[in-house]
What does this fold into?
Amino acid sequence: MTRPPLRQLLAEARSGVLVFSITPPRRSATEERIKEIAEVTLDRLSALDLDGLILYDIDDESDRNPDDRPFPYLPTLDAARYYADHLTGWRQPVIVYRCVGKYPEDELREWMTRAGPEVLSVFVGASSGGKSVHTSLRRAHELRAEFRPDLPLGAVAIGERTDEHLRMLAKQDRGASFFVSQVVYHVNETKNLLSDYFYECRARGAEPRTVIFTLSLCGSLKTLEFVRWLGVDVPRWLENSIRHSADPLAESYRQCVAIARDLIDFCEHLGLPYGFNIESVSIRKAEIEASTDLAAEVAGMLRDRR
Amino acid sequence: MTRPPLRQLLAEARSGVLVFSITPPRRSATEERIKEIAEVTLDRLSALDLDGLILYDIDDESDRNPDDRPFPYLPTLDAARYYADHLTGWRQPVIVYRCVGKYPEDELREWMTRAGPEVLSVFVGASSGGKSVHTSLRRAHELRAEFRPDLPLGAVAIGERTDEHLRMLAKQDRGASFFVSQVVYHVNETKNLLSDYFYECRARGAEPRTVIFTLSLCGSLKTLEFVRWLGVDVPRWLENSIRHSADPLAESYRQCVAIARDLIDFCEHLGLPYGFNIESVSIRKAEIEASTDLAAEVAGMLRDRR
It folds into this structure.
């Protein structure tokens, strides 16, 4: 049986969605190098049973945290441009992220209007309240409603924020039809959010939308520090286990699988539609390969539920 | 193969220990009623593959929390007396709890000295720092070291307290050779404690001792409120699921099994010796039966690890 396309899976809020996410290459890379990266990426993704590909839109987020950024911010190619120019070999849907604050209204509107039928999007608001933006998240939602209401739109869900379930419902009212979580390391916080969201939907008579959980391998303590700098809640025991492990990547892999299993059980029992997003943002070969393995393993876990 | 006795399992810090815990009957019960309760208890425990029985020592703990106690405090029979007078049919070891602050030194010393070879104990300190006590926990440890150093002694481990791993190590230095946790509803907090304890042991070159996790079914929202009143950390999602469930007891059972599975995986991977204590403190028939079922199910999970 052929699996329905991502757009339909999300419209029908069906569980078991699996996507993979990548960051476009650095802007400083040569044209040749970019081509090479795109080819390698498509090659390793082709073997996976994915419903789509997420292309992140990177913002420097230096306003997020006064502490030093553990990794330098390196400008990357625009996701939409990278997709159009280099990923034509990708035959499945793409979810193009838009940090909407980066774009003047007309640029955002222009992009939306031109986006092909295989494109979905996730609009991301500013990383802090004080940041000056070209277009606010609310305004971006209005533009979509006016110019491209058929563009399937997602929103980010961040378990670390209080009342996030209310924000999710507000975004849902403004057109978001699915959610992609922040990287999940703290399952308990994620369960709190899901539970609050589910029962708030019930209280309002609203239909819960699919929540896609982002899993990201962490190959070193430095990566974990970066994740924390980004605002992700990391349990102490998890940090301890990475810190003391002789093979942090294998330890992290094991934890990601356990998190996936836990969230599948939780969502199935609650009756909340869910999916997974396997993130591959590292440029280290071992981490790239491990993320592909993780996607294959999660695909296996989802197989009889899709 | 015959399983070694509890004393030896704990001395050797072997994983897979399974005990069951009960509260002695109310002091107001008639002699006949007490006899009846003891018989029923022994009867339902005889079918279980237990390593021992915990007898709680109940303190009113009204100093713990200025809020109203959700259930009234009803004085119960002394655990040691209940055991001596009514549980002679129990052929396995017992762990008799002693809230040491309740007893004058000579009474505690007398009890220790007379305790038979099948008796182990857990000393519990005062429920708040401000409480006036007959014997402090530290003094109780000294008395045991002096008068009954061969009495296997445990201590409570409370995941909700900061630096609890340091307290555990201090108690270990004063003679405690195993730990029994507070009721576990918040696995994440428990993992934090276990992780801190494990790595602190490693840093000091100390041998980690067995941690016995207490699982307790919660048949109603009121019971959950009581648990919280006692200082137990209950995740919001777990409270939500009990609150919204048509069958809170079945929901709680499911969660206890999931907690057990999670902690087994965690401890096995870390290399920390562990066990379980299935608590049965309710007087409702359905909850009593469910706790016996839970003990049987956890015994099954431990079978190939014992």
